[in-house]
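User: what does the whole thing look like in 3D?
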Amino acid sequence: MNKITILIHCKDRSKIIASVTNFIAQEGGNIVYIDQHVDREQDIFFMRLESEFISESFSTDNFKNSFKSDLAEKFQMKWRIYSSDKKPKMALFISKYDHCLYDLLGRYNSGELNLEIPFIISNHLDLKSIADNFKIPFYHVPVTKDTKEEAENKQLELLEKHKIDFIVLARYMQIVSGKLIDKYTNKIINIHHSFLPAFVGAKPYHSAYKRGVKIIGATSHYVTEELDAGPIIEQDVTRVTHAHAIEDLITKGRDLEKIVLANAVKLHANRKVMVFNNKTVIFS
Amino acid sequence: MNKITILIHCKDRSKIIASVTNFIAQEGGNIVYIDQHVDREQDIFFMRLESEFISESFSTDNFKNSFKSDLAEKFQMKWRIYSSDKKPKMALFISKYDHCLYDLLGRYNSGELNLEIPFIISNHLDLKSIADNFKIPFYHVPVTKDTKEEAENKQLELLEKHKIDFIVLARYMQIVSGKLIDKYTNKIINIHHSFLPAFVGAKPYHSAYKRGVKIIGATSHYVTEELDAGPIIEQDVTRVTHAHAIEDLITKGRDLEKIVLANAVKLHANRKVMVFNNKTVIFS
Amino acid sequence: MNKITILIHCKDRSKIIASVTNFIAQEGGNIVYIDQHVDREQDIFFMRLESEFISESFSTDNFKNSFKSDLAEKFQMKWRIYSSDKKPKMALFISKYDHCLYDLLGRYNSGELNLEIPFIISNHLDLKSIADNFKIPFYHVPVTKDTKEEAENKQLELLEKHKIDFIVLARYMQIVSGKLIDKYTNKIINIHHSFLPAFVGAKPYHSAYKRGVKIIGATSHYVTEELDAGPIIEQDVTRVTHAHAIEDLITKGRDLEKIVLANAVKLHANRKVMVFNNKTVIFS
Amino acid sequence: MNKITILIHCKDRSKIIASVTNFIAQEGGNIVYIDQHVDREQDIFFMRLESEFISESFSTDNFKNSFKSDLAEKFQMKWRIYSSDKKPKMALFISKYDHCLYDLLGRYNSGELNLEIPFIISNHLDLKSIADNFKIPFYHVPVTKDTKEEAENKQLELLEKHKIDFIVLARYMQIVSGKLIDKYTNKIINIHHSFLPAFVGAKPYHSAYKRGVKIIGATSHYVTEELDAGPIIEQDVTRVTHAHAIEDLITKGRDLEKIVLANAVKLHANRKVMVFNNKTVIFS
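Assistant: Here's the predicted 3D structure for the full assembly of 1136 residues, as C-alpha cells:
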C-alpha cells in the first residue's frame, strides 16, 4: 500500500475540490484525509490530502507527473507531494542550553518523532556528551567573527552531504545567515523564548519581567531575514505573578520552549504546515 | 445564491469523498468547506460540507431528493442537509441563575448568535424581568411533584407551536423527562458545572472543594436519559487553589459555565456537531 | 466587629513583619490575612494585611494616626488603610460596545462585585437603554475635538460630586486626558484587546491577524500618559488558528475582554493591587 | 547566614501570627517570607515562614527546642522546621516509561531541582542505560506475585540506608504496599495520567477516549491506601478533539505528565506543601 500527502495552494476558484478528488479517484487512490482553507482576505485556497493507492504499479513519480500536467497547471497550483514511507531528515543546531535537546532526543528515542536526525551541529562542545549518549553524530563548528563564513560553508557541506530536509535551531545562539535561509526557506525552525511579536530579540524574559506581564510565552517560527519575524508555527503561554523573579521566568519558560518546539517539529515533519505571505496554515 | 450545509456519516468505505464531491459538482454546486473524520475504532466515516449553488432554479428539496436516491442509499448514509438562510429556533429553559441567561441574551442582542429565540420557559418568576428587558416572550411553567406531567405537556405544546429546533437548559434546575428527550434527541443542550465525568450530579463545586482539586471545569453536553452522561460538546477549566472557598469556586465557575454554554450553542446552531455512539464529532 | 485592610510598601529592612504584626496586636487587632513580597531587584518590601478589631471603641481614624506615628514614619512606609464596611465607588465610562457593560452590570446585579456604581458616562447614546434596564444613572457626555475640554470638566464634576474612587473604561473609545490621569493615578482601569505589549494602539485584532499569531489575548491595566503602557493588572489568552477571520478574533476576543476586565475590577475593588515602578503586586 | 523554613498548622485562634513573628524576632531572626491560610470549614490555621538568622551561634536544633516549648505547645501546633542548607533526598521508582525519567534527570542535571537523587529503583531493566548515562545508581528490584514482600524489604532497606526523604513514582507500574505508605506518609508522590477524580485506575486515556472528553489531564498526588485518592498536589490539562486517537491522547498526555510531576516534585522539595484532611495547602 502506498500512501502520499498532497499540499496545494492556489488562487481560489470554483470546483477545485471536486477536480482534485476526482483526479485522485481516477488515479486509483482513496482519500483518507482531506482538509481545506480559504483565505478570504487574499483569496487563496489551501488544501491538504492524504491518499492511499493499492495498486502495485503505483509510482509516486508518475503520480506527480500526471498531477502536474492534468491538474496543477490548469489551476496554477503551488504543490508538494510526499511519500509517507520517506521520513524527513532533520539537522539539530544547538549551543549551550540542553532542555530542548534532551526533550527532542527523548522523543526521538521513544519513537514519537516521524523523522531522522543524521547529526547535531554546535558552536560549543558543552553538550557533546548528550549527543554521544543518544548516539547521534556531533559536529563542533565554532563560530567567531573571523570564521563566520568558514563555519557556514562547513554547515552547508554537512547539510548537503546528509540530504537534510529541515533544520531545527534548538536554542542555537547564533544569527543564521541569509545564504542558509535562502537555501532552506521555510525549512529552518527556531524557538523564541517570548510570546511574539512581544519581546523580539535578546533577553525576552528580562523584558517581560521589566514590563510586568502576567503571562509569558514561547513561539516557534520559520526563520526569515528579519529577526523573530518569520511565519509562526506554534505558541504557548503560562501564568506568572509579581513573585516570579527573572530566574523563575527562565525556568518556567524552559518548559514552554521545549513543548512548543517539539509541537512545531512534529507539525513540520508530518507535513501539516503551509506558508503563505509570512503566515502559516496548519492542518492538524 | 443558495448555500447549504451537509452532514453525513456512514460505514467507512473507499471513494466516499470523491463520490460526494463529484455529486455536488454535477448538481452545479461549488464546495466552499469540506472536513471529514474517520473513527478507526468503529470504522465510521463523518463528513461536513458547505456548498454554494448559483443557479436560480436550485431547490434544497430537489437537491435532498437527488442526494438521497443517487448517493445516500448507495453508501447507506445517515445525513442532514440545512439551508443556510434558515436560522434554527432555540428555546431557553431557565430557573433562578441569571449568568448564562444574561450572557446568551447579550450575545443574541449583539447579533453574535445565528439563531432565533422564540421564547423562554422558567419554573420560577425570578428572571422574568430580564426576559422582558430583552423583549423575549417569557412563559412561567412551574414544576411540582403533582404538576410534573401537566408542566411537561405545556412545554411540549410551546415547543411544537413555535417549531423549536433545539432546547438550551441554561442552569435549568429540573430533570428533563424521557418524553422530551426522545422527542429532542441530541437537541437538548445542558451546562453542567463540573469537568465531566468528574462530579456527576448535584453540588459539583462542593465535591470539587472536598476533593481538593487544583482545577475546576464546566461541561456542555446533550441530555440523555442517564444523568450528566450524554455526548460532550464543549469543556473548559480554570485553576483554583486551597485559598478558594466553595463560594469562590461557584463564582469562578460561573464564568466557565457561560462561556462553555455559549460555545456549545454556537457549534450546534452552526450545524458543526455530529453525534455517534454517545460521542461528538465537532467540525469547527 | 471592625475589619480593616492595610497595604504597605517601603524599602526592605529587617524586622518589618514583626514590627507590623506586633503593632496590630498591641492595638487589639487579630490578623486574619497576611501576605508579603520583596522585590529583590529594587529592594522594596510590600505587604497586605487584613485585621479584625473586636473592641467597640475601635476607630479606623485613630488607628491610622497611631499607625502613622508609631510605625509608618519609622520605616518610611507608603501606606493605605481601608475600612471593609466602605465599598469603593466606581464610575463606568463606555462608548458603543456592550459586552463588557452587560458583563459588569450582570455581576453587579447578582452581588458578585464589592463596589457601588453611582453612574455611567458615555460619549454616545447607544447603550443608554442598558443603563436604564439596570437602573444606573446614565450621563451622555459627547466628546468632539471642540468640546474635549468641556466634556472633561463635566466628567470631573460628576466624579467629584459622587466621590468616585476609581474609573473603569469598559471599551471607552476615547483617549483620557492627562488631567484626569493625574487626578486618578492608578485608579483608572482600561481593557485593551491584545496581549500587551504586543499590538499597542488601534485595531489590535487586525494586527494579530496580519502577524498570524496562534494565540490572542486581552490586558487590563491602569491608564498612564503613555498609550497602553501602564501597570498590567490582569491578562488572559485564547487559541486561534488560520481558520479564524478577523471577525472571529473580535468575537473570541470579546469573551477574553469581559472576563479579564471583571477580574481586574474585582482585584482593585478588593484592595488587592499595589503599584510600584509601573508594575503591579497582586495579593490574590 | 542560617536560613530555615517553618511549616505550622493548628486550630485557628487569634494572635497566632503575632505570636509566631514575635517569637522569631526574639530569637534574632528576620522573616523573609510569610504566607498563611485559614480553612474556614474546618477552622484550621496554616502558616509557612522563611527566616534568616545572622548570629553565628544560631543552631537549628536549639531553635526547634525553643519553638516547641515556647510556642508550639501553647497553640498545640503541628510543625516542621527545615534548614535550607539540607537538600532533601529523593528516590526515583520507575518501570518502563522513560519520559518522566528523562525530564526529571534533565532538570536535575541542569541544577533546576533543589534535591539529591541517591538512587533509582526499577522493577525492569529497560531504562538502566538512562540511569547510567546520568550516573545515578540503579537498582533492579523485580516484583512478581511471589517476590512482592522480598522486593518491598529490599526497597525499604535501600530507602533507609540512603536516608531517603521522599519517593517519586515516575510512572512506576506497581501498587505500593501499605507498609511503605505508612512509613512515608505524604512522602510518596505519584503521577496519574488523568484529571482526577475522573478516570481513576488503569487505562485512563482509554476511558477518556471512550467518554469523548474534550480535555485530558494529569494529576500528581501523594499516595494513600485508596487508589488514586490521595491529596492532590498539582494538575494540568490540554485540549483534545474527536480527531485524536487513543495513541494521540497517550502522546499528548506524556507532556502533561512530565510537567505536572516535575512541578509537584519542586513544590515538595522546596517544602511548600502541607497536607490536612486529604487535601493540600500549597504556599507557592
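In plain terms: Helices of chain A lie at 16-26, 60-75, 99-109, 128-133, 148-161, 178-183, 204-211, 246-269. The radius of gyration of chain A is 21 Å.
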